[in-house]
Design goal:
heterodimer; A: 521 residues; seven-stranded mixed β-sheet; 24 strands; B: 327 residues
């Protein structure tokens, strides 16, 4: 008995010594446990880490994969609430009396991740570099300068209605340090960051993970509970769901509705999934039967959109006009009320018969690599048009080849599928069809009126008048069928472990509210 | 100990039979009939319907896919496309491959070195990588697939066929034909080609099975047959997300790929066995057919005399090893 007691005492003493040694040795595991008590590291499974342009706050803002990471590290001049109303950001106040001159009052308690304070000079510099990136919507931009009283003044040659929405969107115009931008190389700017947001750049392992840590210099740092965010790359939807199930990540993007259903069935919490991704079929009419307005109208009438959504998209879609239904700035009008929108096969056949074309064959090009999930929708579309005597040839191309159109190359076919994601300003949904770079309307005489309306929309600063112009442009586009939108689909699902608390997705799927999240221990 | 290897008796051979050929032919005929059923009126592989994701039943024999399309129609159309592709691609690869093998083996010299080193070069590049590069240059499509298969398999045929051609080239009947003044091309096509028919046919059948796998792999990766044309490989890709909920969607196209490959491979084995151990008459008929296809008149293709006739390459036949204990 005595021996057993001695043995127990010995084992107890050994365990105590081991624990003491472990605590004194600064074991990293022990450190992480300690830090996780203050919010922990959120691991987020994504399809892709930043791609072209990387983390450059000027040149890397186009790809969605970049924007979502950039939005955690950089702030914007203004912000926008869930209703689409402008709110203060880095600027506490703004004045835009004549629509040509904008004056912003800049906060004085903002600093960048490297500790340097943000100045009006930084803001003016950031705007000056970003403005040329939107040549159509920010046409007439003259200058942005810091005034003597610490404010920023932005001037346009003519009134502009798109500037404030672009300056407020997480995807539009980030504010960064002038000194940092000028003293770093292009490669350094793509591979690191120095913003004033809630998180700061930590490390990036290509194709594996990108780690952000909490920015202790952030002005609301005391409200940020997470220690950081680890973006983990897994290119397959099923793999990301498996990572969620195995506890390897606490949140994941899911882009496939079937896998999303499985995630929900497995008990994961869905984030918002607004229909923000318009399946735009850009029409390049020249040299195709689509030159004829009756053919275009027949094509639109031959699409049974409700059936297309139900069958081709598994019910995961919505009827859509140029401003997608998930955008809080969408029109009140029901898409079905738009001209030449509601399915009418008899009228479509009549229009084809009267068009003078004996054989209506149209090529539709899509990105076979990135739009693979949209193929069922296109297959149904092909069958629907066949009912009206229209032959639709589906042609898969690599997305890298299709992107040549963004550089001014001619469209590869009469119809080109370019999914249109959320735009900073509503004019963006229209400018992509008739802008200086992407001009699908070309010399189409039917598009002249719509083109003029889009220009008015860009230059109209009054919110109510802009809304009326959006309505008119939408009617003109649907009446003349200058753009075909079979449907709108979910831009991306997001599933969270029940351990993730305090996070509410934003309407534009920017993940900008991750700074409010914490992980339940 | 006395070890004697004996050929089985004719009766034993007949009793054992060429089951590879029988099963291979049976599968092949079944696949062809199934594929041809896609041409029947009313069979439409592209029309969608209201009964999406219906399990196999009396109404939907092999079920329906996510768009309500009949899997029977989709699979039979995919089978037809697969068979067509296998046959055409194999013929193309054979024409190129045997042509190069004849030049390398019969003409020899610098041509032999050049062709064989080029063959080494092509065969040293991973096939899938090569296929993806060709696709990246030419874009997806049936023509690209055919070209890819030709580039992948012609060197295989060249390498395999060069050996038998080298062996035949040294025979007396070839020398006799040369002394008789026949042109070299005439000898190559009219005399050599018919005499290497056995390994050629066997290799072609094997290559056809490989083309099925290559097409399925490329289509699985989205680089092969393009929508809306059905392909078993693409179906496996599209439907893998339904693996747990609607397993028939992935099992059926996988089964189609399996059956196609097995049919071609059994045909290859069966042909090898049949021609290798077959009668002289059977070989003569084959040689006459090849000569006809090659442009010579049947019966004119010179044949090696019995004494110099070499048994065609063949898999090891069944042999009995009888061991007798020495008394």
């Amino acid at each position: 008995m005595k021996k057993r007691m001695l043995l127990r005492a010995g084992i107890g003493a050994a365990l105590a010594a081991m624990l003491t040694l472990t605590a004194c040795s600064g074991n990293p595991d022990a450190a992480s446990q300690e830090s996780s008590a203050s919010g922990g590291m959120l691991r987020y499974g994504v399809d892709s880490l930043p791609v072209t342009g990387g983390l450059d706050p000027v040149n890397g803002t186009q790809p969605l994969a970049n924007r979502i990471v950039l939005a955690q590290m950089y702030e914007t001049l203004l912000t926008v609430d869930d209703d689409g109303t402008l709110q203060p950001g880095i600027a506490t106040d703004w004045d835009a009396t004549d629509g040509k001159t904008f004056v912003f009052t800049i906060r004085d308690d903002v600093s960048f991740a490297d500790g340097t304070p943000l100045t009006a000079e930084d803001v003016a510099y950031s705007i000056s570099l970003a403005a040329p990136g939107a040549p159509d919507q920010l046409a007439g931009f003259r200058e942005a300068r810091a005034t003597d009283d610490g404010k920023v003044e932005v001037q346009f040659d003519e009134p502009n209605g798109a500037f404030l929405p672009i300056a407020s969107a997480w995807s539009g115009m980030f504010i960064f340090s002038k000194d940092w931008y000028e003293t770093t190389s292009e490669d350094e700017r793509m591979r690191s960051a120095n913003g004033s947001g809630a998180f700061a750049f930590e490390s990036w392992e290509d194709g594996v993970k990108l780690i952000l840590k909490k920015n202790e210099g952030y002005r609301d740092a005391d409200k940020v509970k997470l220690d950081g965010i680890e973006w983990v790359q897994a290119s397959d939807n099923s793999a990301r769901l498996a990572m969620l199930q195995q506890g390897l990540v606490e949140a994941a993007d899911i882009s496939d509705p079937v896998i999303a259903d499985q995630a929900e069935a497995a008990g994961f919490v869905p984030g918002a999934s607004p229909a923000l991704r318009n399946m735009n079929l850009m029409i390049s009419a020249a040299g195709t039967p689509l030159e004829n307005i009756d053919v275009r109208r027949a094509v639109s009438l031959a699409i049974n959109r409700e059936e297309l959504i139900e069958v081709g998209m598994g019910g995961q879609g919505s009827l859509a006009l140029p401003v997608p239904p998930g955008d809080p700035r969408k029109l009140d009008e029901e898409p079905a009320d738009a001209p030449y929108y509601q399915y009418d096969l008899a009228e479509a056949k009549r229009l084809i018969a009267g068009s003078g074309y004996s054989d209506v064959t149209i090529d539709l090009t899509y990105a076979g690599d990135i739009s693979a999930a949209d193929v069922p929708m296109l297959e149904v579309l092909k069958e629907q048009l066949k009912q009206a005597g229209i032959t639709l040839n589906l042609k898969a191309e690599a997305w890298s080849n299709i992107t040549a159109v963004f550089g001014g190359a001619p469209a590869p076919s009469g119809l080109l599928l370019i999914p249109m994601i959320a735009q900073s300003d509503v004019s963006g949904y229209f400018a992509a069809t008739s802008g200086s770079v992407l001009d699908f309307w070309g010399d189409n005489p039917d598009a002249q009126s719509a083109r003029a309306l889009v220009q008015q929309m860009i230059h109209e600063p009054d919110v109510d008048k802009r809304r009326a112009l959006v309505q008119q442009a939408t009617n003109e586009i649907t009446d003349k069928v200058l753009l075909l939108i079979p449907a709108s689909s979910v831009m991306g699902y997001e599933y969270l472990s029940p351990k993730v608390q305090g996070y509410t997705p934003d309407p534009f799927m920017g993940r900008i509210n991750l700074k409010n999240a914490s992980i339940e221990q | 100990m006395n070890i004697t290897a004996l050929r089985p008796s004719r009766r034993a051979s007949r009793r054992e039979g060429n089951w590879e050929l029988r099963i291979g032919l049976g599968l092949f005929v079944g696949l062809v009939l199934f594929a041809l059923s896609s041409l029947l009126p009313g069979v439409d592989a592209e029309s969608y319907g209201p009964d999406a994701l219906s399990a196999p039943s009396a109404q939907h024999l092999l079920g329906t896919d996510n768009l309500g399309r009949e899997m029977t129609a989709r699979l039979s159309t995919a089978a037809l496309g697969g068979l067509q592709l296998a046959v055409v691609a194999t013929l193309l690869a054979a024409v190129v491959g045997i042509g190069l093998a004849l030049i390398a083996g019969y003409f020899g010299g610098i041509w032999d070195s050049l062709i064989m080193r080029a063959t080494d070069l092509v065969l040293s590049i991973p096939g899938l990588l090569m296929a993806l590069v060709i696709k990246a240059i030419l874009g997806p499509g049936t023509v690209t697939l055919l070209l890819t298969m030709t580039v992948l398999f012609a060197p295989v045929l060249t390498r395999i066929m060069r050996g038998p051609i080298l062996a035949i080239k040294e025979r007396g009947f070839i020398t006799a034909a040369e002394i008789a003044g026949r042109s070299r091309w005439s000898i190559a096509v009219g005399h050599i080609l018919p005499n290497v028919a056995t390994p050629l046919l066997v290799t072609m059948a094997g290559v056809a099975g490989q083309t099925v796998l290559v097409e399925a792999t490329l289509s699985y990766l989205g680089q092969g047959v393009q929508p809306p044309n059905p392909s078993a490989g693409r179906m496996v890709n599209e439907f893998q997300k339904y693996m747990l909920t609607y397993p028939y969607l992935i099992v059926l196209p996988s089964l189609l790929i399996l059956l196609q490959v097995v049919a071609w491979n059994l045909l290859a084995d069966g042909l090898q066995k049949s021609i290798g151990s077959g009668t002289t008459r059977r070989r003569n008929v084959l040689m006459a057919m090849i000569a006809l296809l090659a442009g010579s008149r049947p019966g004119r293709a010179a044949r090696p005399r019995k004494s110099e006739n070499e048994s065609p390459p063949q898999r090891p036949t069944t042999r009995t090893i009888r061991t007798q204990e020495m008394e």
